[in-house]
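User: Sequence recovery, please. Input:
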């Protein structure tokens, strides 16, 4: 296959922008799946396919259990993969077409299906998309950071660039997806649920998304190279790559820095649920003006996007850990500030900008820090667990999203929230404010305290020297 990745095979190489862009563009395609599931999936099921929202929520909740377990299975598969393309890229190439087809079918529920048959169809296709094909791409994609280079700075760069492309993908999706649905349906309103035109619009729009996923993945494979031990350049041979799953897991739980990042990933994605889902309730019920949702959320998203272009400079000057901690500090003042701003729109926008700065800095560093912890684990235990390590991180993210969604509902219910009430009670408003402002503040403080014990940035130079000596001795 044609490649525009840097030709060097040096495991410790500094990557060129062709490698960095090549890696990032892979997430441009995959991010469409998460975006569609978060923003449009429920709307399609309830408004087009006329399915019961409570029943669909149950399907999603049950499916998340399978989804988390599949991450670990896929991590083990990646660690045991030996191919001419290496461990990760081969799975991206294998799975992109099945993922695209399954996504199209998920948003193309046959009108002839009724009753239980429709729910069975959604359960099966939802799990094919998320539990099987998306997981089989996302876990190898994250592992590719460690497999591309052992350079710690480049780990941070690749993680940051991946997040930039994800944000660009979300902007494209929010701007164009529903326009495609309406244009393909030749209907600017889609007021008639589940008619042929409406379904045709969704199906054709998903075909476009499928093409984006496939093209982005192929470009990612062409723009990356696996250079470190276990990758294609090293002949697919790693350092104890084929150890039993129990041994791999045991080595991960001996890795204090990896455990720290597991919690940090859980916390960040838990917080994402609180501010993304809570923003609608906060605008509508606490601030009393639903229209405030747009400027408040845009302030956060735009500042997060802009910050990710600056974080590489902070990373180079201060290191990944310090940049991450500064991000948490900005998030702390952002969430606390919105909690104290009342209904002052200017202050709400200012503090949401601060949240975005913090999320951009912390989120941009997170995946690079995970890659560093896996090198530390190999150095400490002699067991290379790139696949399993990234899989468990992915599971922690999903756990944060899942528990966040469950807790959101429980706290709203405890506060006496009533969905169709013209005016919410004081206790319901207090519950919403706690979810949107103060629960994230608590979790940020806990995460910051735990991250104080992270010292890996200072240890990485010696770890790299030791690992290079081991790998050289093994080759000789």
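Assistant: Recovered sequence (476 residues):
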């Amino acid at each position: 296959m044609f490649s525009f990745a840097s030709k060097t095979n040096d495991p410790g190489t500094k990557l060129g922008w062709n490698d960095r862009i090549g890696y990032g563009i892979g997430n441009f395609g995959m991010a469409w799946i998460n975006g569609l599931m978060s923003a449009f999936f429920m709307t399609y099921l309830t408004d087009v396919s006329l399915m019961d929202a409570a029943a669909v929520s149950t399907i999603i909740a049950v499916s998340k259990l399978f989804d988390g377990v599949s991450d670990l299975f896929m991590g083990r598969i990646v660690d045991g993969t030996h191919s001419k393309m290496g461990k990760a890229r081969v799975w991206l190439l294998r799975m992109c077409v099945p993922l695209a087809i399954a996504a199209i079918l998920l948003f193309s529920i046959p009108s002839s299906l009724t009753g239980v048959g429709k729910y069975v169809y959604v359960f099966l296709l939802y799990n094919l998309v998320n539990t099987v094909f998306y997981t089989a791409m996302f876990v190898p994609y994250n592992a590719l950071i460690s497999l591309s280079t052992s350079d710690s700075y480049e780990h941070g760069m690749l993680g940051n660039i991946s997040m930039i492309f994800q944000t660009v993908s979300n902007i494209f999706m929010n701007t164009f997806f529903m326009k495609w649905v309406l244009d393909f349906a030749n209907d600017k309103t889609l007021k008639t649920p589940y008619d042929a035109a409406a379904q045709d619009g969704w199906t054709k729009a998903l075909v476009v998304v499928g093409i984006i996923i496939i093209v982005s993945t192929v470009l990612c494979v062409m723009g990356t190279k696996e250079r470190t031990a276990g990758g294609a350049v090293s002949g697919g041979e790693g350092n104890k790559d084929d150890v039993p799953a129990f041994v791999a897991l045991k080595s991960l739980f001996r890795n204090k820095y990896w455990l720290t990042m597991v919690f940090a990933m859980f916390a960040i994605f838990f917080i994402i649920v609180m501010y993304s889902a809570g923003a609608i309730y906060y605008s509508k019920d606490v601030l009393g003006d639903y229209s405030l949702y747009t400027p408040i959320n845009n302030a956060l998203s735009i500042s997060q996007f802009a910050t990710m272009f600056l974080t590489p400079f902070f990373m180079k000057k201060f290191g990944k850990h310090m940049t991450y901690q500064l991000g948490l500090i900005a998030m702390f003042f952002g969430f606390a500030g919105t909690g104290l701003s009342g209904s002052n729109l200017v202050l709400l926008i200012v503090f949401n900008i601060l949240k975005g700065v913090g999320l951009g800095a912390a989120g941009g560093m997170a995946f690079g820090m995970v890659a560093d912890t896996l090198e530390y684990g190999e150095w400490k235990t002699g067991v290379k667990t790139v696949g399993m390590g990234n899989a468990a991180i992915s599971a922690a993210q999903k756990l944060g999203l899942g528990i966040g969604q469950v807790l959101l509902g429980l706290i709203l219910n405890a506060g006496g929230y009533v969905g169709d009430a013209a005016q919410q009670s004081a206790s319901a408003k207090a519950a919403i404010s706690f979810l949107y402002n103060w629960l994230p503040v608590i979790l940020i403080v806990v995460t910051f305290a735990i991250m104080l014990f992270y010292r890996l940035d200072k240890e990485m130079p010696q770890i790299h020297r030791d690992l290079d000596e081991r790998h050289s001795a093994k080759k000789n």
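The mean pLDDT is 85.
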